[in-house]
Each structure stands twice: as C-alpha cells, then as structure tokens.
Amino acid sequence: MQLFLILGIVFTIGAVTFALQNNVAVTVVLGFWRYDSSLAVVLLVALALGALIAGLVSTPSVIKGQWTGARLRRQVASLEDEKASLERRVRELESALPQKVPAAAPPAEEATPYVGRKALMMGAEGKKPG
C-alpha cells in the first residue's frame, strides 16, 4: 500500500515537471474539430486516451481469465470432495476386510508318492521285467 502511494507521488511530481517544461501552445486539428492547448495537456490527454483504449481492449480477456479461475476453483473443490469420499470408502472397505476372511481350505488328500520312470521299468519289486 505504501509502495503505491510512493509511486503515485513520484508519478505526480514527474507529471507536474513535464507540464511546466512543456507549456508551449499547440493546436490539434482533426477534420473540422480544432483544439488549442499547451503541449503537456495534449500529451497527457493522449496518454489517458491510450490507457482507456488499452483497458477496454484487455477487459474481455481479464473477465474470461477470472471466470476460468472461478470454474477451476469449483472443479478443484469438487475433486477434493470426491477424493475425501473415496478415502472414506477405502477405510470402510479395509475395516470390513478382516471380517470376511474365507474358511480354511479343506485338507488335501494323501498324495501318492512320485513314481519315477526307472521304478516303472523295473517293476514294483525293483526287478527288471523280462
């Protein structure tokens, strides 16, 4: 806030100095319109008109940027709400998970031992067929 005040004072001092040094009378003619004033006033009016035109030209993009920012803030809030809802749902499911442990698997049947190729060729007693 103080910085803007200081800049305003510096700008005002510069404008007054400019006006005092450029007090020559000039005539501005545009078609049938004629305007007589000092050079400083004519230049300051031209500066003000330029600032006004720049402001009017840039206003639509500034408004569009503000609308876009507001829309994005609403979207972020919506996504944060959805994230919180999903996190609550995950906690609920994780707390319900230990309650639904499946029953133990039935015991496997006694498996027969592996009978290798050599045992099959030799027969049950270990003798060679023949």
What does this structure look like?
The chain is mainly alpha-helical. The chain has three helices and two strands; from the N terminus they run αββαα. It has helices at residues 2-21, 39-96, 117-122, and strands at residues 25-30, 33-38. A two-stranded antiparallel ribbon has the order 1-2. A hairpin with a 2-residue loop joins strand 1 (25-30) and strand 2 (33-38). The longest helix has 58 residues, at 39-96. The chain is rod-shaped and about 130 Å long. The model has no long low-confidence stretch (mean pLDDT 84).
Rounded Rg: 45 Å
Largest sheet: 2 strands, antiparallel
Major sheet: order of its strands?
Answer: 1-2
* Share in helix: 55-70%
Strand and helix order: HEEHH
Query: Low-confidence spans: pLDDT under 50, at least 5 residues?
Result: none
Give the class from helix and strand content and strand pairing: mainly alpha
Shape label: rod-shaped
Distance between the termini: 112 Å
> Could you tell me the mean pLDDT?
84
Q: Could you give the count of β-strands?
A: 2
